[in-house]
Amino acid sequence: MTFYEKEIHRIGRKVYANQSQINAVIRTRQHLENNYGANTNLNYLSSVGAVSKYHLLRLFKRYYGLTPTQYVTDKRIGKAKEHLKDGMSVTQTCFAVGFQSLGSFSTLFKRKTGKSPHQYQKEQLSRSI
Question: How many CA within 13 A on the CB side of residue 65?
């Protein structure tokens, strides 16, 4: 059992949550972890979690503090950092982690990290030398 799953179970016991709701959130998060590069919309995620899309939003936000979209974005940015450290080009990284537009990837990456993808990669590569 992962740290997040343990935390959800701990929190669930504390606030007397419905176990099926916890399971739906865990299934959804596991799906997002394994398919972060895919274009997953809320309708699809609600079928994975077997709950309505609006209920899924509320549950996911309650248990993880983020919406599913925010969670996927953070996951993609984290994976992008790894790819950039490994020397993958910015364009390849953009599409490898599931973004459809280089411009939106660069803007979002800079907003989340404070640096453009190219600046981030340059710093990481200079540190490894």
Answer: 5
Domains, in order of start, for the chain: 3-65 (no CATH), 72-128 (1.10.10.60)
Per the CB < 8 A criterion, the answer to whether 80 and 109 are in contact is yes
pLDDT digits (tens, 9 = 90+) for 92-102: 999 999 898 99
**For residue 88, how many other CB atoms are within 10 A of its CB?**
16
**N- to C-terminal Cα separation, the chain:** 38
Tell me which residue of 40, 36, 51 sits closest to 82, measured CA to CA.
Answer: 36
**CB-CB contact of 96 with 78 (8 Å):** no
Q: Look up residue 114 and give its DSSP letter.
A: S
Query: 65 with 108: CB under 8 angstroms?
Result: no
Q: Could you report the per-residue pLDDT of 56-93, keeping only the tens digit for each? A: 889 889 888 999 989 999 999 999 999 999 989 999 99
Round to whole Å and give the CA distance between 124 and 116: 12
